[in-house]
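Question: what's this shape?

___
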Amino acid sequence: MTRPLQITFKNLQPSPEVEEWIREEAFKLETFYNRIMACRVAVEAPHRHHKKGLRYHVRIDLRLPGSELVIKREPTLGARLRQLGEAEVTKHWEADATRKDLRFAIQHAFKAAARRVEEYARRQNGRVKAHASPLEGVVTRLDPEKGFGFLVTPEGREVYFHRNSVLNRGFGRLKMGTHVAFAEEPGDEGPQASTVRIRARSRAPVADISAI
C-alpha cells in the first residue's frame, strides 16, 4: 500500500507477522479505490482469554477525499467455529488456534472495509460522471507544509483541495494564480475538489483573486 498506514496494538505484543497480514489486506483495498489518503488499523485483545469468549477487536479508520470511514469488527469465536463446521472444531483448538482466530478477525474487518470503500467509489464515480465538463478555478491559497490549498471558481466560490487530489503529483508545481480544472464533491466542511488538473491557461474568466 502506497498510502500512509499506521498499525497499533493493545493488550498484545506487536508482531511482524500480524503487521504483514494487515499490510496485505490494506493493499487489497486500493483495488477498489486507489485514492485512499491514509489507513489506521488498531488491533486489541481482551485482558482475559477464555476459549468460549475469545475475540479480537479490529478497528480500521480510512481517510478518503471528502470522507472518513470507520469500520469496527468484533468477530466472536462462535462465528469462527460456525464457519469451520463441527468436523473442524477439534482442529481449531490446536496450539495455533489463537493465531488463526486473530487472522480471521483481521480478514473479517478488511472484508467489511472493502465493501464500504467499493460503495464509496461507486458514489464518487457517479458524481464525476454527472459533470458534463470539468469545472475551472484559480489557486488562491497554499500550505505546502500541511499539503492543502484553496482555489476560487469564476463565480467566486472557494473550494478546498488536498495534495493527493492534484493529478500527476502536481502539488509541488502549484503557485498562487495557477489555473486548474477540477471535479467537485461535498466535504466535511464544505465543497472540495476531488481531482485537480493544472491547466496552461483558463478558458473562462475567473474571479479577481486580489479581492479575496
In short: The chain has two domains: 5-129, 135-211. The two ends are 39 Å apart (CA to CA). Strands lie at 5-10, 38-44, 57-64, 67-73, 135-143, 148-152, 158-162, 179-187, 190-198. The chain has a mean pLDDT of 77.
